[in-house]
Amino acid sequence: MSSNLHPMLNVAIKAARAAGALINRAALDVEAVRVSQKQINDFVTEVDQAAEQAIIETLLAAYPGHGILAEESGSQHGAKHSEHVWVIDPLDGTTNFIHGFPVYCVSIALMVRGKVEHAVVYDPTRNDLFTATKGRGAYLNERRIRVSKRTQLKDCLISTGFPFRPGDDFKTYLLMMAELMPRTAGLRRPGAAALDLAYVAAGFTDGFFETGLSIWDVAAGSLLVTEAGGLVGNFTGEADFLEQKECLAGTPRIYGQLVHLLGKYSKFANAGDKAGVRQAVQEAPGASGAMSAEDDAPSAPEDADERKESGEAAA
Question: Is 91 annotated as a binding residue?
Answer without folding.
Answer: yes
